[in-house]
Amino acid sequence: METVTFNPDDAAMVAAIRQIPAFTPLGPELFGQVMEMVTIRDYAPRDDVLTQGEQDNCMFFLLHGKLSVRVDSVEVNTLTKPNTVFGEMGIVAQAPRSATVTAVRPSRCLALDIRFFDRLQGRARLAVQAFFYKMFSHILAERLRETDARIADLDMQKAVLENIDID
Questions:
Q1: Can you give the pTM of this predicted structure?
Q2: How far apart, in whole angstroms, are the C-alpha atoms of residue 113 and residue 87?
Protein backbone atom coordinates (compact mmCIF):
# COMPACT_ATOMS: atom_id res chain seq x y z
CA MET A 1 0.00 0.00 0.00
CA GLU A 2 1.21 3.44 -0.89
CA THR A 3 -0.17 6.57 0.75
CA VAL A 4 -0.67 9.70 -1.32
CA THR A 5 -1.05 12.99 0.51
CA PHE A 6 -4.25 14.83 -0.27
CA ASN A 7 -3.40 18.03 -2.12
CA PRO A 8 -6.20 20.62 -1.91
CA ASP A 9 -4.73 22.35 -4.97
CA ASP A 10 -5.21 19.24 -7.14
CA ALA A 11 -8.46 20.25 -8.84
CA ALA A 12 -9.00 16.80 -10.38
CA MET A 13 -8.65 15.06 -7.01
CA VAL A 14 -10.94 17.57 -5.28
CA ALA A 15 -13.52 17.10 -8.05
CA ALA A 16 -13.32 13.30 -7.72
CA ILE A 17 -13.81 13.47 -3.96
CA ARG A 18 -16.66 15.96 -4.34
CA GLN A 19 -18.45 13.26 -6.41
CA ILE A 20 -18.64 11.07 -3.31
CA PRO A 21 -22.16 11.59 -1.92
CA ALA A 22 -20.81 11.84 1.64
CA PHE A 23 -18.88 14.98 0.77
CA THR A 24 -21.21 16.68 -1.71
CA PRO A 25 -23.25 18.71 0.82
CA LEU A 26 -20.24 19.92 2.81
CA GLY A 27 -19.46 23.62 2.46
CA PRO A 28 -15.92 24.68 1.54
CA GLU A 29 -14.75 25.28 5.13
CA LEU A 30 -16.12 22.00 6.49
CA PHE A 31 -14.91 20.13 3.40
CA GLY A 32 -11.42 21.50 4.06
CA GLN A 33 -11.55 20.39 7.70
CA VAL A 34 -12.67 16.89 6.72
CA MET A 35 -9.97 16.64 4.04
CA GLU A 36 -7.35 17.23 6.74
CA MET A 37 -8.30 13.79 8.08
CA VAL A 38 -8.18 11.82 4.84
CA THR A 39 -5.45 9.88 3.16
CA ILE A 40 -5.47 8.51 -0.34
CA ARG A 41 -4.20 4.96 -0.48
CA ASP A 42 -3.11 3.01 -3.52
CA TYR A 43 -3.27 -0.78 -3.30
CA ALA A 44 -1.59 -3.33 -5.53
CA PRO A 45 -3.32 -6.63 -6.31
CA ARG A 46 -3.38 -8.91 -3.22
CA ASP A 47 -2.85 -5.99 -0.80
CA ASP A 48 -5.30 -6.05 2.12
CA VAL A 49 -7.22 -2.84 2.71
CA LEU A 50 -8.93 -4.21 5.83
CA THR A 51 -8.28 -7.39 7.79
CA GLN A 52 -11.02 -9.35 9.51
CA GLY A 53 -10.69 -9.19 13.29
CA GLU A 54 -8.59 -6.03 13.38
CA GLN A 55 -9.88 -2.72 14.67
CA ASP A 56 -9.09 0.78 13.45
CA ASN A 57 -10.68 4.19 13.04
CA CYS A 58 -11.02 4.45 9.26
CA MET A 59 -13.84 4.10 6.82
CA PHE A 60 -13.13 3.94 3.11
CA PHE A 61 -14.45 5.15 -0.21
CA LEU A 62 -13.41 3.27 -3.36
CA LEU A 63 -12.20 5.78 -5.93
CA HIS A 64 -11.33 3.18 -8.56
CA GLY A 65 -10.28 -0.45 -8.82
CA LYS A 66 -11.66 -3.81 -7.79
CA LEU A 67 -11.78 -5.17 -4.25
CA SER A 68 -12.75 -8.59 -2.93
CA VAL A 69 -14.66 -8.85 0.36
CA ARG A 70 -14.07 -12.11 2.25
CA VAL A 71 -15.46 -13.45 5.49
CA ASP A 72 -13.54 -16.40 6.91
CA SER A 73 -11.70 -16.69 3.57
CA VAL A 74 -14.97 -17.00 1.59
CA GLU A 75 -15.63 -14.26 -0.95
CA VAL A 76 -18.98 -12.65 -0.19
CA ASN A 77 -18.83 -9.55 -2.38
CA THR A 78 -16.82 -7.65 -4.97
CA LEU A 79 -16.57 -3.87 -4.96
CA THR A 80 -16.02 -2.09 -8.27
CA LYS A 81 -18.35 0.91 -8.23
CA PRO A 82 -16.56 4.23 -7.64
CA ASN A 83 -17.55 5.99 -4.40
CA THR A 84 -18.61 2.75 -2.72
CA VAL A 85 -18.34 3.10 1.04
CA PHE A 86 -16.90 0.25 3.09
CA GLY A 87 -15.46 -0.27 6.53
CA GLU A 88 -18.19 1.80 8.13
CA MET A 89 -19.73 -1.08 10.09
CA GLY A 90 -16.72 -1.35 12.38
CA ILE A 91 -16.90 2.39 12.96
CA VAL A 92 -20.60 2.43 13.79
CA ALA A 93 -20.39 -0.67 16.01
CA GLN A 94 -16.94 0.17 17.38
CA ALA A 95 -16.07 -3.46 16.75
CA PRO A 96 -13.32 -5.37 14.96
CA ARG A 97 -13.57 -5.69 11.19
CA SER A 98 -16.10 -8.32 10.11
CA ALA A 99 -14.41 -8.99 6.76
CA THR A 100 -11.11 -8.81 4.93
CA VAL A 101 -11.07 -6.51 1.90
CA THR A 102 -8.32 -7.19 -0.64
CA ALA A 103 -7.36 -5.46 -3.88
CA VAL A 104 -7.99 -7.67 -6.93
CA ARG A 105 -6.50 -5.14 -9.32
CA PRO A 106 -4.77 -1.81 -8.69
CA SER A 107 -7.15 0.21 -6.55
CA ARG A 108 -7.27 3.67 -5.01
CA CYS A 109 -9.25 4.39 -1.87
CA LEU A 110 -9.88 7.45 0.22
CA ALA A 111 -9.47 6.60 3.91
CA LEU A 112 -11.29 8.82 6.39
CA ASP A 113 -10.13 8.68 9.99
CA ILE A 114 -13.32 9.32 11.96
CA ARG A 115 -11.35 10.71 14.88
CA PHE A 116 -11.68 14.00 12.98
CA PHE A 117 -15.06 14.34 14.77
CA ASP A 118 -13.06 15.06 17.92
CA ARG A 119 -11.35 18.03 16.26
CA LEU A 120 -14.56 19.72 15.17
CA GLN A 121 -16.29 22.21 17.46
CA GLY A 122 -19.86 23.27 18.12
CA ARG A 123 -22.38 23.24 15.30
CA ALA A 124 -19.85 21.96 12.75
CA ARG A 125 -19.26 18.86 14.87
CA LEU A 126 -22.98 18.19 15.32
CA ALA A 127 -23.71 18.78 11.63
CA VAL A 128 -20.97 16.45 10.41
CA GLN A 129 -21.83 13.75 12.94
CA ALA A 130 -25.52 13.92 12.02
CA PHE A 131 -24.72 13.79 8.33
CA PHE A 132 -22.37 10.80 8.62
CA TYR A 133 -24.72 8.84 10.86
CA LYS A 134 -27.54 9.51 8.41
CA MET A 135 -25.25 8.25 5.64
CA PHE A 136 -24.42 5.16 7.72
CA SER A 137 -28.12 4.42 8.25
CA HIS A 138 -28.80 4.68 4.49
CA ILE A 139 -25.88 2.35 3.72
CA LEU A 140 -26.95 -0.19 6.31
CA ALA A 141 -30.58 -0.03 5.14
CA GLU A 142 -29.47 -0.68 1.54
CA ARG A 143 -27.33 -3.60 2.67
CA LEU A 144 -30.25 -5.00 4.64
CA ARG A 145 -32.47 -4.80 1.54
CA GLU A 146 -29.80 -6.59 -0.52
CA THR A 147 -29.45 -9.27 2.16
CA ASP A 148 -33.22 -9.73 2.33
CA ALA A 149 -33.32 -10.20 -1.45
CA ARG A 150 -30.49 -12.75 -1.28
CA ILE A 151 -32.27 -14.66 1.50
CA ALA A 152 -35.51 -14.70 -0.49
CA ASP A 153 -33.61 -16.01 -3.52
CA LEU A 154 -31.93 -18.72 -1.44
CA ASP A 155 -35.28 -19.68 0.09
CA MET A 156 -36.70 -20.05 -3.43
CA GLN A 157 -33.73 -22.18 -4.53
CA LYS A 158 -34.11 -24.34 -1.41
CA ALA A 159 -37.82 -24.85 -2.11
CA VAL A 160 -37.07 -25.88 -5.68
CA LEU A 161 -34.39 -28.32 -4.58
CA GLU A 162 -36.63 -29.83 -1.91
CA ASN A 163 -39.24 -30.59 -4.58
CA ILE A 164 -36.83 -32.39 -6.92
CA ASP A 165 -36.94 -36.18 -6.86
CA ILE A 166 -33.51 -37.74 -7.44
CA ASP A 167 -34.59 -41.29 -8.30
A1: 0.79
A2: 11
Residue 155's Cβ-count burial label (10 Å; 0-12, 13-18, 19+) is exposed
Query: Could you give the C-alpha distances from 49 to 56, 84, 99, 147, in angstroms and in order?
Result: 11, 14, 10, 23
CATH of domain 2-119: 2.60.120.10
> What pLDDT is stored for residue 28 in this prediction?
85
Query: Which portions of the chain are predicted below pLDDT 50?
Result: none
Rounded CA gap, 132 and 114, in Å?
A: 10
Q: How far apart are alpha carbons 69 and 110 in whole angstroms?
A: 17
Separation CA 110–CA 34 (nearest Å) = 12
Which among 125, 134, 59 is positioned nearest to 97, based on CA atoms? 59
Nearest C-alpha neighbor of 134 from the set 85, 76, 69, 79: 85
Residue 27 amino acid letter: G
